Each structure stands twice: as structure tokens, then as C-alpha cells.
Amino acid sequence: MKLKVTRPFIKMTLALLLLSIGVFWGVQSFGQELSAEQKEVTNVIKIVWDSLVKGDYETVDKLWHKDGAWWGAAFDLPQDKNTYLGGLKKIKFPSAEVKPVEVKVVGNTALMHYYYSFTVAGNSNVMSGRAAATLTKLDGKWIVVGLLMSSCSQLSPCIPMPSK
């Protein structure tokens, strides 16, 4: 059967193509626009990771709620803030990167899903995975209450952090 390409067929195909591109672009740009509060939340998480690379545990401590918890991919149970920070102080992080996926803010509570990757001194492997951070706003500042991390090496399926 031979396909007859008519002028109306071409117009309809182009219209559908343009509509599809417009819808796709609209969805993509909507997902990338962050409110001021979402940007603040994202910034806190990035500062935490940047501080780990710098060995600035005082900043990490200030950005973490005193009753906060962390559940790393390699641990059976969550750890309290002091145990978490004590363990981190024994590790050197030459590099770390965060790529936000989604930030939800509801009142004084925020949830940020993101991809992460980092390196540990003495290990050439790049550790990567996905995480969910819960933050609360106290005295006008966002602080981390909890962090749940999942390693791509332990998940199936897991999409490693997208490259730049």
C-alpha cells in the first residue's frame, strides 16, 4: 500500500509535531522552575554536601536538627545526628555533587528528592544513588531533620546520577 502524502497530511503532521514539542517543553520547564523557598531548601542540601568536601563539620552540624536522623545505604537502621557526624568526621570526601529531582514545600516542612555522587579518599570508585531529605523551617531558616540515602549499587533498577 502506497502512502499518499497530501498537503493536509503534511499540515496535520507538522501541527501535531509542534504541539508535542510545546507540551514537552512546557512540562520540562515547569519541572525546573523553583520557588524562592524551594531554592532555599536546595541550597541547604548543597551546602551540607559542599561542607563535607571542605571538612567543615561545624556547618553540617548547624544545618542539621539536634534530633535529626540519617539512614545511609550501608546501614540497617537510622543513626542519630551525633553518631552520623562522628562517622563522617573519619572520612575525607574529595568531591561530592547533588542534582535535585523534586522539592516539595508544605508550610514549614520540605521534602527534597535528589541524586548524589561522591568520592571517598583512598577509593577510586564514585559512590552514587538517590536520596530524600526532610527539612523544617525553624526561626526562619531551613534545617535538615532526616536523610534517607539509597546506593545505586544496591538498588535495582537505579539510574545513576545524570552526567552534566
Output the structural class. alpha+beta
CATH structural architecture:
Roll
Overall morphology: globular
Q: How many helix segments? A: 4
The largest sheet is: 6 strands, mixed
User: Average pLDDT across residues?
Assistant: 81
Q: What is the CATH C level class, in words? A: Alpha Beta
Instruction: From the alpha carbons, calculate the radius of gyration and give it in angstroms.
Output: 21 Å
Distance between the termini: 46 Å
Low-confidence segments, given as residue ranges, are 9-30
What portion of residues belong to β-strands? 25-35%
How many domains, as an integer?
A: 1
Helix content: 25-40%
Describe this structure in words.
It is a single chain. The protein is α+β, with helices and mostly antiparallel strands and 164 residues long. Helices cover 36% and strands 35% of the residues. It has helices spanning 7-32, 36-54, 57-62, 81-88; strands spanning 64-71, 79-80, 95-106, 109-119, 126-138, 141-151. Strands 2-1-6-5-4-3 form a six-stranded mixed sheet. Residues 9-30 have low confidence and may be disordered.
